[in-house]
């Protein structure tokens, strides 16, 4: 299958694309045009649609999927699409999300099975009930199977959050035998629930932005609010020690309050402290892995946003 990045100057592109941005303008002959940023899993290209009708301008919405017939031209040294025909997709087009946006390399059902195994293996009835209740909510279940773990930094692709959760559970399982002072079930429950607020902090799984609640409250507090409302529903007392511990681990998972990364409280148990480092390892390793795999064959150094410095590919 050919993607946007594969097309060269002079070629004709007939493809499904995601509309990432749209800007209307008026040409010197008074006809209206659209500047579009179109993307698929390979990247994005700017596109020009001349003589656009008012209806078409409406129909081509940001974050929607369109089918285009276009020519690749060079404009100021960059490839640009000049669109001859364009239409919004319909259900019968059966567009695969995998072809439009980057997606986790691990199949979603495989990740889901591992998550369920871990939940069923929890010994704490309270924590198991809270997590099962969260996942019994159809909207939450659907979002966990789709959402990225972030807009930019790490696991920033379709069902990246689920990959992050399962990766943390795996890392936690390996480290637990070394640290008997850690509460196993609270650690596992934190792996699953720590970023659950991201399902509402981010707008959607395809081209996510931060929502207003996400910006005003943030996913740590949003996650704790979700846990509280589940406890109320299940008649679990707010003073339950495991619930308090889980909430503490969620609220402290970005590290010390002083570091400014958004923790509401600094970690005050071995479980909370260990979880913060696990989350750091998993997010940074994922981001660095992506930085290295995005490097050109000749490149020896690349800037890694997650570390705010260049990293070396080496030998
Ligand atoms: Fe987080
Ligand atoms: Fe995380």
Could you give a quick summary of the protein structure above?
By secondary structure, the protein is an alpha+beta fold.
Description:
The model has no long low-confidence stretch (mean pLDDT 94). The protein folds into 2 domains: 4-97, Beta Barrel (OB fold (Dihydrolipoamide Acetyltransferase, E2P)), CATH 2.40.50.140; 102-289. The chain has helices at 54-59, 97-100, 108-120, 125-136, 138-144, 160-175, 184-193, 198-201, 212-216, 219-234, 241-251, 270-294; strands spanning 12-26, 32-40, 43-49, 65-75, 78-88, 301-304, 309-312. With 315 residues, the chain is an alpha+beta fold. α3 (108-120) crosses α6, α4 crosses α10 and α6 (160-175) packs antiparallel against α7 (184-193). Residues 194-195, 219, 253-254 line the site of one fe (ii) ion (FE2). One fe (ii) ion is lined by residues 164, 194-195, 279, 283.
Helix content: 40-55%
- SSE order, as H and E? EEEHEEHHHHHHHHHHHEE
Total count of helical runs of at least 4 residues: 12
Based on CA atoms alone, the radius of gyration comes out at 23 Å
Beta strand %: 15-25%
For the largest beta sheet, what order do the strands appear in spatially?
1-2-3-5-4
Major sheet description: 5 strands, mixed, barrel
Number of strands: 7
The assigned structural class equals alpha+beta
Apparent shape: elongated
